[in-house]
Design brief:
It contains 7 helices and 6 strands. The chain is of the alpha/beta class. Strands 3-5-4-6 form a 4-stranded mixed β-sheet. It has a two-stranded parallel ribbon with strand order 1-2.
Length: about 200
């Protein structure tokens, strides 16, 4: 069964050949000149809303080689079966290549998911980028964050809206290139601050 209608790649202020490679591979390439993970995701959402408003499911994943797109069928299955609205690909319960996540990332995930459980009553093990959500539910939760708080905002808003949420194990490997977040001390600190700020902001 062909699950994917269109692959959308958002070129977020990169200086490499991202856009060219995406087009050559048959994807739709969008450009978002303002840096920020949330900005890139919001750009993709806006495109889908305008071009394919009847979309059933939208899937997010990083374009740095770390996620496994071939695991998409497992990710979307709970939604296709009518059981769930949001599915997070959990790197914590899947198989991770050695060195694919830094110690600050692992600790940050544990802390953030513990706070989500404590304050919002929903149990997650990861804030992983590989995730699937019903498109109408995504529009309903009205995503706002433009930087590092994007993933946790989606999960806490899903909890507040009482969406049906679950996780499935996904595998994870070392990324290509240097992460602007986990690859620098500044990025790690800013991401940690923004994630905690977002969790407390919506209480």
């Amino acid at each position: 069964m062909d699950l994917v209608e269109e692959v959308i790649v958002v070129n977020n202020a990169s200086t490499d050949q991202t856009e060219k490679e995406a087009i050559n591979a048959g994807a739709t390439a969008l450009t978002e000149s303002i840096p920020g993970y949330g900005n890139a995701c919001l750009k993709g959402i806006e495109y889908v809303k305008n071009e394919y408003p009847e979309t059933d499911i939208i899937v997010f994943l990083d374009g740095d080689y770390s996620d496994y797109p071939e695991q998409l069928p497992q990710l979307v299955r709970p939604i296709l079966e009518g059981k769930m609205d949001l599915v997070i690909g959990s790197r914590a319960t899947g198989q991770r290549e050695s060195g694919s996540m830094t110690i600050p990332q692992l600790f940050g995930n544990w802390l953030a998911t513990s706070l989500l459980k404590l304050f919002y009553g929903l149990r997650f093990t990861d804030l992983g980028p590989f995730r699937a959500i019903r498109f109408n539910k995504l529009l309903e939760i009205d995503m706002k964050d433009r930087t590092y708080g994007w993933t946790v905002e989606m999960q806490l808003k899903a909890a507040k809206k009482k969406l049906r949420c679950t996780e499935v194990p996904v595998n994870y490997k070392r990324r290509i290139g240097v992460s602007k977040v986990s690859g620098t001390v500044k990025g790690t600190l800013l991401a940690g601050y923004k994630i905690l700020y977002t969790i407390f902001r919506y209480l």
